Amino acid sequence: MSEAPNEIPAALAPVVDMTPAVEVAPQGMVSTTPLPLHAHGGAACAAPQAPASAQPLGYMPPQDDHRALRTSRLKWSILTSLLTKPLAFVAPIITVPLFLKYLGADRYGLFESIGALTVWLTLTNAGLTLGLINKLTDCHVSGDRETARRYVTSLIFVLLGSTLVVSLLVTLIVPAVNWSAVFRSDSVLGRRETPWAVWAASLATVWGLLVSVPQAIYAGYQENHRNNIWDGISKAVTLIACIAVVRTSWGLVGVILAAAGSAVLIRTINILVLFTWEKPWLLPLPRYFDRALLLGTMKQGVGLFVIASSALGIFQADKLVISHFVGADAVAQYSIIGRPFMLVFGVYSMVLSPLWPAHGEALRRGDVDWARRALLTSMTFGWLAMLACGTVMFFFGDLVLRVWRVHGIAVSHSLVLAMTAVFVLWTWMTSISVLLNSANVLRAQMWFIGLHALLNVIVACLVAPRYGTNGVAWSISLTGIVTSAWGYPWMLRRYVLRPARGAAPAAAANVAGALA
Fold this sequence. Notes:
By secondary structure, this protein is mostly helical. The protein has helices at residues 62-84, 86-118, 128-142, 145-173, 179-182, 188-210, 213-220, 224-245, 251-278, 291-315, 317-325, 328-352, 355-364, 368-403, 413-438, 443-481, 484-497, 506-515.
């Protein structure tokens, strides 16, 4: 089953802030006021400075100071990712063959299909968690802890209420659905397990959303190194649980509880430690609930909600379409062939994740040049990584599966080419989207990715009966050619990078709207 979006790791040990302080001789010299964009270059206007002879030893211009600290935190984030993220690659290498042998191809296909279905429940938070990132970035730049606490409190109480309501609805609806008509399965045991499996996966997903708030908080304050440490603990516990569950008779439900429930447990510990030890000044209390701030977060969250749901429509509807039109065993082949691409995309995400708050802070301080260079670096890394993965799977895919000890799955060269095209497109879109999200460029994204998702579902349903998994895989990149492939570069030039070439500072205007 795919990991739910917004997965938040946790730790059982103290987390030490490893972000080095920037030494500035007179401590008051570091400005936290957003710097204006230059009317012609997009770079920050230099603040008036005293003559060199009058500047104290160690003085660093404010823009250089913020850039150095931003880059330092980004490096710490990447370093801690390199120490903890390998678990994300080790886990599937171990668990996929274990689960495939334990469940069989048909029930493993059900496992993947149920994950693809229940991940849609992540949309029940309507983008609020993602919207919190930009709001806390604003508070971080301005140093306003009081407003930050109001944002966090308002979000937590709304998420708690929605989680309770959705949990009740899931408990009432799941028993009433004929799941045999939703998932085609030849396994009698699988059909009997499906309702309980859907219920367990659904509750793990919605409660995981509630305890995912620390990820947004860490991101908003550019403390992704803390998030990475919790993430490492979460994945280690999940891996242990997944290895242990195949020695039991718990079946499909047990596999789901091990793969998804363990992370929820660790995330719960994370949120308790965050509010009682790491950042007690953000502890949610009823008196800090602010309806006006909540509405502002919700307004921004709507755009992120549409973008996230469209992304799910592109990358999760495929398994549901295959399961319905082709069969659960075909989902197993599709998922396993795609797993190496997902692992490489995980490496890419490791670098990309901390760029959202870093881009946001850079744009709020007028440092468009830094954001542009970071974007180019991340895009290049993504392309090369995905092309390398596709090349290995095309020529050595059978060997990879044998070494992986996955049996009974044939490597289709057409499917590998389709996966390569899909993930090259997706890394490109994602790198641009992270920058657009940080600049609050949401409405235009909603149209492009929404149209991409709609066309993809329509085309996938049309081609699946005739062309099977290969047709469904190719539909993602083919529909992207007429939508996102040209739309995202256009948005990037129109709303963010144009100021750096001498046009009106559109990126600054977008960010200013969020600060208002």
